[in-house]
Structure formats: C-alpha cells, structure tokens
Amino acid sequence: MRIENMIQPRLLKGFRDALPNEAYVREQIIVRLKQSLSSFGFVPIDTPVLEYTEVLLGKGGGETDKQVYRFQDHGNRDVSMRFDLTVPLARFVAQHEHELSFPFRRYHMEKVWRGENTQKGRYREFIQSDFDIVGDDSSQSDFEILLLMKTALEEIGVDNFSIQFNHRGILNELLKQLELGQYEVEILRLIDKLGKIGREKVKDELTELIGARTEAIIQFIDVEGTNLEILSELEKLVPQAEEPISRVRSILSLLQAMDIEDTFSINTSITRGLDYYTGIVFETFLPDLPEYGSVCSGGRYNNLAGLYTKTPIPGVGAAIGLDRLIAALNEKGLLKDLKPGAELAVFALDPEYAAEYQKIADTLRKSGVKTEVLPMGKKMQWYFKQAEKKSISHAIICGANEFSSQTYQLKNLINRETSEYKDLQELSQVVLQELR
Amino acid sequence: MRIENMIQPRLLKGFRDALPNEAYVREQIIVRLKQSLSSFGFVPIDTPVLEYTEVLLGKGGGETDKQVYRFQDHGNRDVSMRFDLTVPLARFVAQHEHELSFPFRRYHMEKVWRGENTQKGRYREFIQSDFDIVGDDSSQSDFEILLLMKTALEEIGVDNFSIQFNHRGILNELLKQLELGQYEVEILRLIDKLGKIGREKVKDELTELIGARTEAIIQFIDVEGTNLEILSELEKLVPQAEEPISRVRSILSLLQAMDIEDTFSINTSITRGLDYYTGIVFETFLPDLPEYGSVCSGGRYNNLAGLYTKTPIPGVGAAIGLDRLIAALNEKGLLKDLKPGAELAVFALDPEYAAEYQKIADTLRKSGVKTEVLPMGKKMQWYFKQAEKKSISHAIICGANEFSSQTYQLKNLINRETSEYKDLQELSQVVLQELR
Q1: ipTM over cut 0.85
Q2: CA separation (Å) from A399 to A347, A384, A423, B263, B415?
Q3: Does B5 sit within 8 Å of A115, measured CB to CB?
Q4: Are the beta carbons of A50 and B362 separated by less than 8 Å?
Q5: pLDDT for the residue A65
Q6: A23 near B45, Cβ under 8 Å?
C-alpha cells in the first residue's frame, strides 16, 4: 500500500468507538439487565435497523423527522434508520398481533440513530434499552414495571435511587376543572421544564399564558408529604380525578405490601412532557448525583400501534438511559470490578514447552479462570510489563526447572507474592478465591 | 387515528423481525460464545454502524462496494453502513494503536448490512461474529484460534463438526514452482469453487486456463491421508514450501499434545478464495449436515490495516456464521431447551389477594425461577390456556382457601401433577429440579 493512498482512520462527528473496558462494562450491564427482565418472564425481540421511512415516520413530518438518517436504497425505496425502539415495537406488535400472546412482556436493547446537535455529550448513535408490558391495562402491570425498575437497577449495582411517579390523568382532570383543556400542550411543556428553568420562571411563563389560574397549577405541582398525604391532598384539589387517584392508590398499596414503598415517591410535577403517555408516568433520580437527571423513565400509553392497526393496544413501559447510568456508576466507582480480559497470564518462557503452556491454560480455563498464554520465548521482564499493561492479576511462571520438578509457580501480580503448587486444580481454586 | 391514514406494517425485502423464540436463541448463543472467548482472555470492542464511506471502502471501488448502503448525511458527508466487521477492526486498530496492547484479542458480534440479491436465504441485515488475535504472527496464535473454534462450538452445543485447515503459502509455492504466479487469482477462484461445481468441472476450467500444468494442481488438492501423511506428501510435492509446512507441523503438534487432533484435518483444497489471507486458512463443516457449508471460517493475514497505517499489523481470526449455525442446530433439535419467558405462572385468581400473588412471584424470582403473574381475576380455564400459549411449564394456583390454610398449590402443566407446599422455598427447589 503506497502511503499517498493512505486514509486517515477517523470517525464521524457524534459517533464513538468503545474500547474494551467501556465495551465490556456496557455488555455486562446489559447482561444483568436482561437477567432481571428474564426473571419477570420478559422476552427479547429484534427488529431491523432499516425500515420504510413511511413506517417509521408515518405520513406526517414532525420535528424529530429532521434528525432521522433517511435515504434511497438500491431499489430506490425511501428508507430510514430507526430513531427509537418504540415505533418499531408498535409496527412489530401490529404486524405480528396474531403470533404473540398478550400481555406481551418484551425487552429490546439496541442502537438507534439521531442526527442531533452533538453538544453536551449527546451522541448520534446510542443504545436504547426498553422494556414494556403490551396489551394490558391493569394497575398490576403498572406496579410490575415499577418493581422491575427497582430490581434491575439494584441488580446492576445502583445503590441509591428514587423512583418518582405521577398519573397524567390527575393533571388532565385539573386542567378540565380549570377550563384550561386547550392549553394542555403548553402547560405540560412548561411543567416539564421545571427542573431546567426553576419554579419561579415556570410560574412567570404560566402566568403570561393563563393568568390567575396559574396559582392552582402551582399549588398542584407543589403538593408534598408522604405518598398517602399527597393522595389525600390531591383528592381535595382535584375531586374529579377519582379514577386516576384510585389507580395510584392501588399501585401504592402493592408497593406497601411488598415493603418497598421507600424507593417510590409520588411527584405531581412529573409529566414526561409531550410524550404519548396517558396513565402513570415515572422518572428515576440518583440523589447523590442529581446532575445526571433521570436514568430510567417511562409510563403508560393507551394506544401504542394506532398508526398500523385498528386494535387499540395499551401498555406500560420504561427505558433505561444506559450511557448516563454507566457514567454515573463510573463516577461512584461502582464499576471497578468489571474488567475485561484474562485474569491469569501464562508466561510462555521456554519454546521447548509450547504444548505444556497450552495444557496449563486449558486446565485453568476449564476451572473458570480466564487465561491467556502470552507470546513465546520473551525475557522475564517483558512478561511482567505485558501482564501489567493488560491489568492481569495473576501469572503462572514455569520454565525447565519447574517442568522437571512438576511444580507450578503462581505469582499474584498485585501483592507480588509467589506460591508453588503441584496440583493445577488447587492452584486455580486459589486464584478464583483471590479474584472474587 | 383515522383509518385512511393507516400505514401497513411491513418490512423491507431482505430484512427480518426476530420473534421472541428466535431472538432468545440468538441472544443465548451469543452469550455462550462470549463466555468461551472471555475464558481465553478475549475482550469486546464496539465501532459505529455509520462511518465515512472513504474509511470503509477506501478510494477504490470494487464489487462489494455496490452492495453498500451509502448516502449523504445531514452535513452532506458521504457515509456508509458497515458491511463487515473486519474493515472497522482495521480502522479501529490503526486509530487506537497506542491505546491497545498487543497481541490484542478482540471479539465483535454485531449486525452488518449488504444490499445483496435476496434469493436463497440471504439477508440484507445479518450478524457477524468475529474474533481475532491482532499483532502477533506466531503459530501459537494460529493454534489458539483453532482451539477456540473447537471450544466455542462445543460450548454452544454443536456435537459433530470437522475443522479443516490449510496454509496459503504451500499453494503459493506450488504455483511459483509451476511458473503459474500470474494466474494466482484465477486458480484460487477455481479451487474455491470445488464444493459448488465439482472436481471435474474445476479440472476442465483449469485445463482451459493453464493446460498440462493442471495435473500438478489436481494432484495437490487431491492429497489425502492422515494429517502427518498429508504433510509428508506435500513436502515431496512442494519442496520449496518448507516454511509454511513447518508452520502447519507446529500447529499440528500442539493439537496432538492437547489430544484434540481428531477434530482437525489438513485439507489442501481450502483456499478461502480471494480473501486477504496469507497464512493458515480454515473452514468448519458439519458432517451430518453438509448442506449448510462452512459454519466457521477464517485465517491468517499479514497486513490488516495497510489502508490506514504504515505499521504492518499481522493477525489471525475467525468468523462464525451465526444464522447458518442456528439453523443447523435447530434442524438437529439441539436448541429445544432454549425457551424464552417465564417458567412459572402465578394464576392471580382472586383480586382480593393482589399483593399476595406479587409476594409469591418475588420469592420465586429470588430463588431463580422465572416467574410471571398472569392478569387478575380471570376464569380458571383462561389461565391454563394462557400458560399453554406461553409454553409455561409450572403454575401456582391459589385462591381464598389456599391463602387461609397457607398452602401453595403447584401444578406441573406438562404432566398435570399437582402438589402442595407450605414453604415457597421448598416449592421453588422442586420447580428448579423439574426444569433442569
């Protein structure tokens, strides 16, 4: 290859490589999430990255549409890369309605693409991790998603989090009561900005929009207390919201019965903005790291697949913000144990014993120790450096002497202690004990 | 949503959804592959789906290029979706050369896209599963990839397979010897068609191309016997190929020392066609299901990243044909145990006990039984049907009577046997035993 033909290895703006440490952490977190989801009977699905643009975007053309990676394929079809996993789920459920059994509990954790502005740690390629219960409208499913959020976050090691929830129906009833129905969109949008612009600014903008009735909205989003106190207060403030309040009460009583109410707080200012939610909505915050915002959010919708089928398909689901969550766990030092690669290195000092080194490695792997045979015939110092570079904690050092006396020298590369073993099984047990 | 605005839920030609069974099998097979790879110290990486077209295709324009999904992005950049994981690996290694430590053992199992002709079970979106040892030119690495192929295929339950290997260098020396160097490409292409068009047709086409010298080529690809016999024969036929033959001998002696030579056969007709391999090449066949062709292939290359860096980067690697392998395992009935979803259903017969059903499920999940609480307050027959639809094998059936006597009724839905337990832990142990 002539140098003048060389191409600079580089990435598109907004796209990233994952080096092994990062890729491994992501992989392991996803494995754990899937384990939690499986334990609740959730099943995976997969859908294509490319679909007909019409199927993904509908016939309209909203704000998101401009961010979509859209082009003509080889057959001049108008195609797009998926920008979320919810639209593909809707299409999937409509298309396979008769092959699925409902309530359908599915998860889907894959990449999506949006040609967004790349400022502030936003990427154009990122992983969505969604789980939903589709085809069921019960408070039992609402509760199950909340319980699953708690279970999954604990499973991946998040040690302090607060799941805050609300019911869209209560605010809707309040707006009706105040004859503010026609301002619903603007009011939702404003309340959603609470965290960003602050209470006073929201109040000012509301007042500009709806005048004196602002007071009642502010009173509503200000309601505080224990979950039960909040519900009593809401019953007084929005007497027409009997149905949504009673739904929240059912969910709460299940949380209480399971003795996990502490993790969950009703928060009347949570609306999930302009999303398509119609029932409960929720967000998850890290009290130690509020700057990360919500790491897991979602809610209930009453018509998932209206674009594709006449069958009304209700559901409830959540999405974990994987990148954000991993960044937060990293900041708290909770991912230190997730290290990819070998745990033990075999120093293949003497080419004479090539096969012996491989046999040692084979035995150790079969005992559960991740083992790498380092290249053959290097100097002792090279091996130590190589093991250090790869953050390998243990080494087996064997040359002619050891093989003739049939002993294996094990070196803990962290505390620098050396020990000798006649039996590889015994040696591997020691390594496993020191590792876990 | 008005019906006239509805959109038909459909997929692009050559693209597929994976329903839960299929998605789960794929997920579990990948988990097992990654476990095997991890045990050898391999680490994951990730690269973007979209890259600069120039980076993926170079400055030329070959046959593959026409199949690439290529378009202008929002910033009018010429971008393409990756069509394999080897080019991204080359770019990745060149770009992160100083952040990686070599030999670099990496795996990458993700989707790639090719706008190919969709006949004969070929899809335009499919998963590549690659693993390579990069930055090392030793026979030890060649051996390790072969051993890993065997380990990984066994780990995912393939019960009968044959790994056949060869060394490109031997054929190259033969061609030199016959003064056929300038026909290398055509000859490789013809030998590669052996499986498809048969020996006689290859012979005819070779004769047309190179006349009488065909005999020597045919004699070469016809060499048979034990691995050692083949090597002796090759030493006679191609005396100049001392170096590649001695490399194959080293690999073979490691396979013998590990007592796994039976799985591996030298096959002089394996060339991997026009691929960029320069050393050993290999393919994996299923003797029971020859029609599936090779399910795992690869080889050694001497210059992975020549397009992006002056550093010559050798390596050796393999790719598993996941779709083909899964189809073959399915045909052999070896995937029956990989069933997604709940193993046990809680029949939530009486809404009075909503919280109790959830507590039962929680205990079972914590004991390791995948548990789903079915919707509340249905008729008994509905629950049985629902559990059957979902292929759930066990159920806990509890109503007012059971709760008042504090017993749990467990029903094995396959053999229809019912038993009663006072203790949920005991019950879950019984379920786990019956499941495994």
Answers
A1: yes
A2: 9, 15, 16, 30, 59
A3: no
A4: no
A5: 81
A6: yes
